[in-house]
User: Fold this.
Amino acid sequence: MKFVADGMLGKLTRWLRMLGQDVEYFKQLEDSELLDIARNENRILLTRDMELYRRSASKGIQAYYLEGKTEPEKLAELAIRFKIPLKIEMEKSRCPMCNSKIEPRPKEQVKGELEPNTFANYNSFWRCPKCGKIYWQGAHWGRIRDTLEKAEEILRNNKGA
Assistant:
């Protein structure tokens, strides 16, 4: 499954990439260009623009209109619709910035590229082979888990409805 997200979904794009989903994102493309990408690359268009959603449907391009307002709501919606697990598995994760699959890196290979405290306090690192960004499960990981737990809670509440 591959997606292309409209310019209103930058934050959601980063979340989906961390969850291992292949998501193309262009902040300032015209609607017609997004539709061409969806058609030519066999991607599902994700949008919060009802007019764009209708245009895609009229052209036979698979699209999904997101109704959720918060990131947990949007993630839960997509988890329901596309059976996306709401769990980050680093071996499947993609770079939130450029969409390439990230790769594990031994700690010694990233020495000198991180703040000394980061290097001293963490042992597992991943690097994007395309943009070079380095990732680790740092203090921000608590906020990531909180967001995913809220999305899971929405899922549980929807299953009971």
